[in-house]
């Protein structure tokens, strides 16, 4: 017989697995974007100094924005886990 606690455990396991997949894909995407910005700024440095500086600043802001977003999602996830599961 399937009990409520077993269903809750299965649901939480599924949510954790799906969240981890999204985190990995997001990290790879932002890492690739950061690498492309660094390479572009290096290539453009010799001709377009200001444009290169703007690209470097954007590249520095990406990790900061990712960290802020990650903290917001963590707080949201914690609040979600505190809510009672109704069936």
Account of the protein in words:
It comes from Iris pallida (Sweet iris). This protein is mainly alpha-helical. It has one domain. Helix content is 86%, strand content 0%. The protein is built from 2 helices and no strands. It has helices at residues 4-44, 49-82. Helix 1 runs antiparallel to helix 2 (49-82). The longest helix is centred in the first third of the chain and has 41 residues, at 4-44. The chain is elongated and about 70 Å long. The model has no long low-confidence stretch (mean pLDDT 77).
Q: Brief description of this entry?
A:
Keywords: Membrane, Transmembrane, Transmembrane helix. With 87 residues, this protein is mostly helical.
Per the principal axes of the C-alpha atoms, what is the gross shape?
A: elongated
Taking the alpha carbons of the first and last residues, their distance comes to 16 Å
Mean pLDDT: 77
DSSP, total strands: 0
How many H/I helical runs? 2
> How large is the radius of gyration?
20 Å
* Structural class based on helices, strands and sheet pairing: mainly alpha
List the secondary-structure elements in sequence, H or E. Answer: HH
Query: Which stretches are poorly predicted, pLDDT < 50 over at least 5 residues?
Result: none
The amount of beta strand, in percent, is under 5%
Which sheet architecture does the biggest sheet show? Answer: none
Give the domain tally: 1
**Helix share bin:** over 70%
Keywords: Membrane, Transmembrane, Transmembrane helix
Transmembrane segments: 27-45, 51-70
Organism: Iris pallida
Protein name: PRA1 family protein
């Amino acid at each position: 017989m399937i009990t409520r606690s077993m269903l809750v455990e299965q649901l939480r396991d599924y949510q954790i697995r799906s969240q981890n997949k999204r985190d990995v894909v997001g990290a790879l995407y932002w890492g690739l974007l950061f690498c492309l910005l660094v390479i572009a700024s290096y290539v453009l440095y010799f001709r377009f100094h200001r444009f290169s500086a703007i690209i470097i600043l954007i590249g520095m802001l990406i990790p900061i924005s990712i960290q802020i977003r990650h903290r917001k999602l963590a707080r949201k996830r914690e609040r979600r886990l505190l809510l009672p599961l109704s069936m």
